[in-house]
Amino acid sequence: MIVNRGPRARLVRFARLDRVSFAADARLDRVRLVRVARLDATLLWRNRTALFTTVGLPLLFVGMLFPMRGQKIQGVDAALLQGTGHLAFFLLFAVFMNLATVFTARREDGTLKRLRGTALGDAEILGGSVLTATVLYLAQVLVLGVVLVAALGGRMPADPLLMLAGLACGVVVFALLAFLVSGITPNAELAQLTVLPVMFACMAGAGVMFPLGELPEIVQNLLRALPLTPVVETVRTGYFGRDFTAHGVPPEVGFGRGWLACLPSFAIMAVWMGFGRWLAERSFRWEPRRS
C-alpha cells in the first residue's frame, strides 16, 4: 500500500509546477519503483481491453508470419524480415499506446494527482509504469525471438548487442512520445484515437511491412525520419549482419561495420529523444484537464 510519509512530503509535492521533469532524480527509491511497477502490472492484468491491445494484437501479428515462410524479399526469408520488423513494431503496443492510455486515464480520474500527495517521487510514479511497459515489451521480444529461431528457421542474431542497443533506444523514444501524446489528449476515451497517427505512419512507412530499400532514395530518406524506422533498421542490421540502411539489396557487414552503418539511425533516435523530451516536459499534465 502507498502511504503518505508526512506533511513535509505533501508541501513539497504541491509546490511543484504541473509539469514533468526528466532530470535524473537522486532520491529515486528502487523499492518503491518496483512496487509501483507491480501495481501497474496488476491493473493491466485486470483491464482486459488494455491487455488485448498490448498482448493480444502482437500475438496476431506473430501468427501472420507463418504463411510468409519460404518467400524471399531482398535475399532473405520474408517471414524473418517481417519478424525482425515486428521486434521494433511491438514498441507501439507495449510502450507507446499502453503508456499514453495509462497516463491519460490516471490523470483524468485524479490518480496521478493523488499519488503526488504521497511520499512517492515523480520519477517513481511515472517510472513504475514505464518499467512495467518495458518488461512487457522485453517479454514480447523474447517470445518473438524464440519463434523466429525455433519455428521460422531463423538463426541467432549476428550482432545481439547492436539489436539490444536499437531496442533500448526505441523504448526511450516511444516512452517520451507517450508522455507527449498523453499531454495533448483530453480524456482516456480519445487516447485510442490520438495514438493512431503515429501508429499508422510507423506501420506504413517505417519498413515494417516492406523493406525501404525497394523505394526511391528520396522517399527512403523522408521515411527514415519516422521514429520507428531507425529502430527497424538497427534491429535488422544486428540480426542479419546486413546493412539495412543501404539502398537496394542490403550488403553483408562485419561486426564493427554494422555499428558504423547504423550511426545515422542512432543519430535520428537521439534527435527524437531530445525533441520528445522537450515537448513532453511542456505538454504532460498531472492535473485533470477539467480541473
Describe the structure.
By secondary structure, the chain is an all-alpha fold. The chain is built from 14 helices and 2 strands. The chain has a two-stranded antiparallel sheet. Strand 1 (about 70-75) and strand 2 form a beta hairpin. Helix 8 (about 160-185) packs parallel to helix 14 (about 265-285).
Write the layout of secondary structure elements.
Layout (H helix, E strand, L loop, with lengths): L6 H8 L15 H17 L1 H16 L8 E2 L2 E2 H12 L1 H18 L2 H5 L6 H29 L9 H25 L3 H7 L1 H10 L11 H7 L5 H12 L14 H7 L1 H21 L8
Antiparallel strand pairs: 1-2
Order of helices and strands: HHHEEHHHHHHHHHHH
Structural category is: mainly alpha
Number of helices: 14
Helix content: 55-70%
What overall geometry do the principal axes of the alpha carbons give?
A: globular
Largest sheet: number of strands, sense, barrel closure:
2 strands, antiparallel
Strands in their spatial order, largest beta sheet? 1-2
In quaternary terms, these chains amount to single chain
Counted up, domains total 1
Strand content: under 5%
Number of strands: 2
Mean pLDDT: 86
- End-to-end Cα distance, whole Å, is 27 Å
Weakly predicted, low-confidence segments: 1-16
